[in-house]
Amino acid sequence: MTVNDNVSLSSQVTEDINQFSNIWSQILQDVQNSTKKTPPPKSLIILGDNESGRSTLIARLKGVESISKGIGLEYHYIDIKDEDRDDVPKLGVWIPDGDASSTNLLKYALNESNFENSMVAFVVSMSNPWDIMDSLKKWSKILTDHIKKLNIPEAKRNEYLRKQRQAFQMYQDPDENVNVLNNKKTNLNSSMSKNDKKDLNESIDNDDSLLLPLDPSVLNSNLGIPIIVIVTKSDYISILDKDMEYRIEHFDFIQYHIRKFCLDYGAALFYTTVKEKKTFDRLYRYLIHKLYSYPFNSASSVVDRELIFIPSGWDNEGKINILLENSTTIKSDSDFSEIISKPTIRKSLPREVETIIASEDQEFLAKLQILLSKSTTPSVKSEEISPSVQMPPQVFKTPQKPPLLKGPSTTGTDRDSTNLKNFFQNLLNKNAPSSAPLTSSAPTLPTSSSASNLANIEQTPTGIPNSPPQVNVSPLPNQSSESNA
Question: Of 176, 245, 253, 259, whose CA–CA distance to 217 is shortest?
């Protein structure tokens, strides 16, 4: 083998190695181009009043029942599900406190570094429809003032504003068969090559004159950042209809003003309720569409008043006016607070604080004694008891003296009555309780000439029975029987 042959062989080997290296480089390049790059961190800022349903909203977007609540500035994240990626992107969610005094914390959630990759959501609640417009105006002003304070270069600020205009102009509704933008592109040159069409798309993106101009009422308050308005607790529409007698015109009037606000800021509109899971699924897909450029094919929905969905770019002044064109009682230029007024709640007037001074013990007891004496029924004296009133059982009563027997008014009769009275008095004295034991012997009758008159008297033992002794007195014989004796 000659020297020339060796040189040619080595050059052939080198060429093969270079060709093999180029093949691997091409394969690696193709794999790198086909693999989705990890997107930069994205942020969602939730602005709204307290008790507007912000925590429940984020919990449903995360797929959990509830989330932990904090104070000041809360931070959560939502996992972005993508089967084409090994890593899972996370959408950061910032929730400043609903108190306006905490708005200074907004600088940590939205600043110059993450402005391009952020989105803002205004959250209001249908449970308090009279506060909806005031809340939207308050938080939109807070956001506008905050963005003006950011040190964003003028060139970048203009670029952000232009992107929001183009996003509104280039919206395509899946339900519309004819799209003006597609027709404009097709009519320019239907026989364009692939590269020419690519250049046309880029020229449209860079030149707003190729797009339809915006209506005068659209994007008058362009902030250069995507915005959505979320009306939570939309199921309260049925409660307002039942309890507060809201009619269809009232709900159309509320929707009319919300859509006018959204048109001014170029915002999308969502009605959500925990009773319809699809409302949160649709909101989730729209968020990742706007932030991560995922496809979104859901059409607008304005038929069901509890499931309203209006994407940014679909609405216009003519569609909004349809809501109240048939209304006879509510006009479009009516003041919102007059038509949707807050119900009046009667509150008791606050009483003056009374100073309670404790009285002394003796004074308190004296007052208590007076109250007790007034509430107590006076006791009945024993001598006032009627003879017909029966005494309760197991109550012992001293036997009363039997009435004196009346006879002829003679001197002997008076003497006999005196003796009889003395007998019963002695009998009562013996029955009275004493320290000496009582005997059961009958008392000795006093000697008298009228002893025969007591012959028919039935005496009882003088012992103490279980019940008071009863004395049975038989009537005295008449005068004639006495004389016969």
Answer: 259
User: The domain containing residue 218 runs over which residues?
Assistant: 33-172+194-339
Q: Which helix (H) or strand (E) holds 231?
A: strand 227-232
Instruction: Phi first, then psi: give them for residue 118, nearest 5 degrees.
Output: -125, 160
- The pTM of this model reads 0.62
233: left (phi over 0), alpha (psi -120 to 50) or beta: left
**Total structural domains in the chain?**
1
Q: Determine the length of the chain.
A: 485
Task: Report the DSSP pairing between strands 73-79 and 90-96.
Answer: antiparallel
Cα(473)–Cα(274) distance, rounded to whole angstroms? 98
Q: In whole angstroms, what is the distance from residue 257 CA to residue 143 CA?
A: 20
Task: Give the pair of three-digit tokens for residue 223.
Answer: 């902030």
Cα→Cα distances 114→166, 266, 287, Å: 21, 20, 16
CATH number of residue 93's parent domain:
3.40.50.300
d(CA 224, CA 226): 7
Cα angle, residue 43 at apex, residues 37 and 47 outer, rounded to 5°: 160
Q: Is residue 274 assigned to a domain?
A: yes
**Angstrom distance (rounded) from CA 77 to CA 181:** 36
Q: Quick one: pLDDT at residue 362?
A: 86
Please report where in the chains the tokens 């930069």 appear, as a residue: 40
Q: Evaluate whether residue 466 is within a structural domain.
A: no
Region for residue 349 given its phi and psi (left: phi exceeds 0; alpha: psi -120 to 50; beta: otherwise): beta
Sign of the torsion angle spanned by Cα atoms 432, 437, 441, 446:
negative
Instruction: Read off φ and ψ for residue 271, nearest 5 degrees.
Output: -105, 130
Helices (H), 207-341: 236-243, 248-265, 277-292, 317-321, 336-339
> Rounded CA gap, 137 and 172, in Å?
29
Q: How far is CA 101 from the centre of its chain?
A: 24
Contact 357, 290 (CB under 8 A): no
Give pLDDT tens digits for 20-31: 667 777 777 766
Q: Return the amino acid letter for 413.
A: T
Helix orientation angle between 132-149 and 248-265, rounded to the nearest 10 degrees: 10
380 part of a folded domain: no
The neighbour count for residue 158, using CB atoms within 10 Å, is 12
Say how many CA atoms lie within 13 Å of 217 toward its Cβ: 12
Give me the amino acid identity at 245. Answer: E
State the SS3 of 306-328: CCCEECCCCCCHHHHHHHHCCCC
**Is 227 domain-assigned?**
yes
Mean pLDDT of 204-216: 67
pLDDT digits (tens, 9 = 90+) for 441-463: 444 444 444 444 444 444 444 44
